[in-house]
Amino acid sequence: MAQEKLFEQNQNSTIKRSKIFEMVTCSLLIALVFVFTFFVQFTLPFASGGGLIHMGNVMVFVAAIVFGPRRGFIAAAFGMALFDVVSGWASYALITFISKGLMAYIAGTLAYTAGKQGKSVLFNSLGIILGGLVMIAGYYIGEIFMLGSFVAPLANIPGNITQIVIGFVLGLPLASILKRYKYFSNMYGA
């Protein structure tokens, strides 16, 4: 009887630590995405909606590849939407939440397809490319409703492509480096 109670207490303690670890991990990833988006950015002069270029996508792809699709979604959706709200782009927050969240989820899902665990450059690359295409489509569709035009949102596509390319070029190697370390090699799980 005493052993059963001790086992139950240990199990409850492990569950609580696991939930706290998950909450802290997701919070840190959200913060990293926000910081890289807020502090490392510039605006393209030729885009009608501003064409904001930032390093947030680097962290989005790292989160999705190293920590998995669910954590990647949370980091991208909340981190990027928070940036929109606090930096004068609040009208884009919902579009950003959906588009960036889906982008990360797709990138992370492909990175973990067929047991690859985020360690395959090919699957990670395919995930970033497919996720990036979904993000571009998401912004285009959202801006059609926002701007009331099928043509005006086309001006923002070059900036979105640039963001994906930057995220790919910097995020893919960084994620690959992190996955080599034992601590990060098995982060996916929750």
From TrEMBL:
Record bears the keyword Disulfide bond: no
Name of protein: ECF transporter S component
Annotated Gene Ontology cellular component terms: membrane
Membrane spanning stretches: 20-40, 46-66, 73-91, 97-114, 121-141, 161-178
InterPro entries: ECF_substrate-spec-like
Native source organism of the sequence: Clostridium cylindrosporum DSM 605
Keyword Transmembrane in annotation: yes
Keyword annotations of the record: Membrane, Transmembrane, Transmembrane helix
